[in-house]
């Protein structure tokens, strides 16, 4: 099938092939734009290492006191979080020229299906993502905002990352 023929619930990889969107996001990504994500990813979609939330260099910010944001998962670490309701988890970067950027943690799709002898492999959807089907656990509003972030992130990823296998 041609790239232009991808349909709802599919994504187009960097080679122009269409694949079904089978979500396999980490815990904490299922609603509210990843507000509950507590994973260990500490790198932006561009591959930049995240700045510790407790640090103020190279970028000063107002999230250094985790007790001021008790439900945000902040602390003396540099893992991606979403303390302020952005479309997806993000972090301040260690690059002095880039203050912050999104992390590709809540837009994972199944890139290899499970077999009798192996688990499924999850990775970012590279290329252009088409609207994914609504989740059975999300509200319509949550699904709509998640779809928007998937399109944005996938487009960004395709310009900076080769196909994940």
Primary descriptors:
single chain, 165 residues, alpha+beta, elongated, disordered C terminus
Short description:
With 165 residues, the chain is of the alpha+beta class. Helix content is 13%, strand content 14%.
How would you characterize the overall build of this protein?
This protein has 165 residues and is of the alpha+beta class. The chain has 1 helix and 7 strands. The strands form 3 sheets. The protein has a 3-stranded antiparallel β-sheet with strand order 2-1-7. Strands 3-4 form a two-stranded antiparallel ribbon. A hairpin with a 5-residue loop joins β1 (10-12) and β2. The longest helix is centred in the last third of the chain and has 21 residues, at 140-160. The chain is elongated.
> What structural class is derived from the secondary structure elements?
alpha+beta
Unreliable residue runs: 128-165
| CA gyration radius, whole angstroms | 16 Å
What is the number of E strands? Answer: 7
Q: What order do the helices and strands follow?
A: EEEEEEEH
Straight-line distance between termini? 21 Å
As a percent range, the share of helical residues equals 10-25%
Number of helices: 1
State which percent range the strand residues make up: 5-15%
Look at the structure and give the mean pLDDT.
Answer: 73
The largest sheet, given as strand count, sense and whether it forms a barrel, is:
3 strands, antiparallel
């Amino acid at each position: 099938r041609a790239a232009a023929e991808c349909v709802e619930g599919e994504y187009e990889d960097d080679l122009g092939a269409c694949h079904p969107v089978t979500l396999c996001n980490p815990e904490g990504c299922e609603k509210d734009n990843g507000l509950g994500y507590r994973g260990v990813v500490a790198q932006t979609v561009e591959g930049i290492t995240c700045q510790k939330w407790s640090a103020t260099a190279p970028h000063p910010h107002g999230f250094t006191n985790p007790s001021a944001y008790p439900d945000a998962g902040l602390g003396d670490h540099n893992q991606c979080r979403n303390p302020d309701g952005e479309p997806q988890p993000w972090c301040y970067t260690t690059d002095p020229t880039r203050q912050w950027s999104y992390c590709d943690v809540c837009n994972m799709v199944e890139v290899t299906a499970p077999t009798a002898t192996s688990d499924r492999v999850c990775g970012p959807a590279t290329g252009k993502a088409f609207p994914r089907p609504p989740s059975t656990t999300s509200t319509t509003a949550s699904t709509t905002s998640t779809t928007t972030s998937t399109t944005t992130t996938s487009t960004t990823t395709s310009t900076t990352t080769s196909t994940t296998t």
